[in-house]
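Per-record layout

source: Solanum pennellii
name: Nod factor hydrolase protein 1-like
length: 372
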Amino acid sequence: MANIMLCSCIVFFVALCSDVMANPHCKGVKGAYYPSWAFSTFPPSSIDTSLFTHIYYAFLVPNNTTFKFDIDDETSKLLFNFTSTLRSSVKTLFSVGGGGEGPARFSRMASTSVSRLSFIKSSIEVARKYRFDGFDLDWEFPQNKKDMENFAILLDEWRVEVKKESLATKRPQLLITAAVYFSVDFFLWGEFRSYPVPSINKNLDWINLMFYDYRGSWDTSATGAQAALFDTKSNVSTSYGLSTWIKAGALRSKLIMGLPLYGRTWKLKDPNVDGIGAPAVGVGPGDEGTLTYREIEKFNEENNAKVVYDSATVSAYSVAGTSWIGFDDTNSVAMKLHYAQSQRLRGYFFWAVAGDKDWKISTTAKQSWIIS
């Protein structure tokens, strides 16, 4: 097994180096999102920048009518603090949108050439003013085929404007990335639609694949591995999602594996039946059934929880009484990143950086990723 993994990593190294030779900007990505609401308890200066290459400020949201970014004085101070603290050590991007924003604003923004240009021009202005290296679009999620068509047009026009600005100012081109669904198509809910892979390959520097939130408080009937690498009972898994992107023609050198620094919790129906898929009757501890990895470590220690590594899903879970927590530990993260490298992916990212405990997971990730 070890020799197979070593050979896979060597193949990955050769493939990625070929990409680097063709594109000097094609290097391994070790990213993490920084939630702005954590500023008071976890300022940017708290981040161990030696563990990352890119940090995303989350989130900025454009005006609902003009689709420009209206930055108030408080946010302006946060942005200057963020980039001035970090940019000498890592690349910084600001992420637009987020899961709490919803899709409607972006659907309207992307629907006309005028609104798209307003958004694009403003994004470039914000990036340059606050000294970001680029931007990340977190549109969760395009709802139909028309949205996907407009998503492609938006990326085309964004790249054109970024190139134009770079030539005019003689500055390096700003990075354009996007956070996307775990699968290239939406087969679980809503209208069937697929991401425009040709436009993504052409225009984005990379995409952050959100390989998490497979299970959670929306289904309290049974426990689950919320970021399962494998799932023999369904297609809701990282390995399946990744395969759909690759089959659709997405360049492996633009695919970034998303990893959660949080877990999902359930209340067991019977504390004696506690495996993955065990019957549950509600959410467990945490905010709406969610705990950061830092909180999970504390919970496990204080409650003398039983901690189990599940090799079938490549995940971990802990049990204390009727409380059940599914999460990623150092073992599962290491195995996932070995898998990512065997698939010749570009790198990984975490949601969200403030959730780690003593940098255990982030350090494991960096040590597991053999490409700098």
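summary: Residues 187 and 296 are 32 Å apart (CA to CA). The longest strand covers residues 29-35.
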